[in-house]
Amino acid sequence: GVPFKPDTPVKPDGVERGLVGEIIKRFESKGYKLVALQLMHPTKEQLEEHYGDLKTKSFFPKLVAYMLSGPVVGMVWEGKDAVKTGRKLLGETNPLNSAPGTIRGDFCIDVGKNLCHGSDAVESAQKEIALWFPQGVKSVARGLDRLIYE
Ligand code: DAT
Ligand code: MG
């Protein structure tokens, strides 16, 4: 397996809008390997840890309330440069700055309803995977990789 795994949850608006399949499809079509997937009802404590680096921001309480507004779908994707490229597939934090063709560029408008999360570094991906998938994730070799990687 290729070791870089971003933790990529679909936020409550993405689940309620029926865009889970579309978001999964973007990562699948790119060639990344799905190694974990789970519908979750996050707790306030989990979200405060997940967004710990934003605790002092004025929008933090609103962000946590948004993320508590419904179920989210957590997923872990594996593949070459998956963290950096996964962020490109998502688009910019502010959807209005996101290019068409990206998930946020194609499906949303406001920063406080930006559909999806993506880990911003390999280190934060590892922390987020441990937080949301405490049972661990397992990557199984697949024959398809011979058609994806040279
Ligand atoms: P990203 O989700 O692109 O990694 P981030 O980590 O800086 O962005 O912020 C986490 C989330 O917080 C982001 O997806 C939406 C919200 N957010 C960020 N900046 C914001 C702002 N200026 N106003 C309102 N919400 C904001
Ligand atoms: Mg972030």
From TrEMBL:
Signal peptide limits: none
Residues engaged in binding ATP: 11, 59, 87, 93, 104, 114
Active site: 117
Superkingdom of origin: Eukaryota
Family designation: Belongs to the peroxidase family. Belongs to the NDK family.
Protein name: Multifunctional fusion protein
Gene: CCP1_2
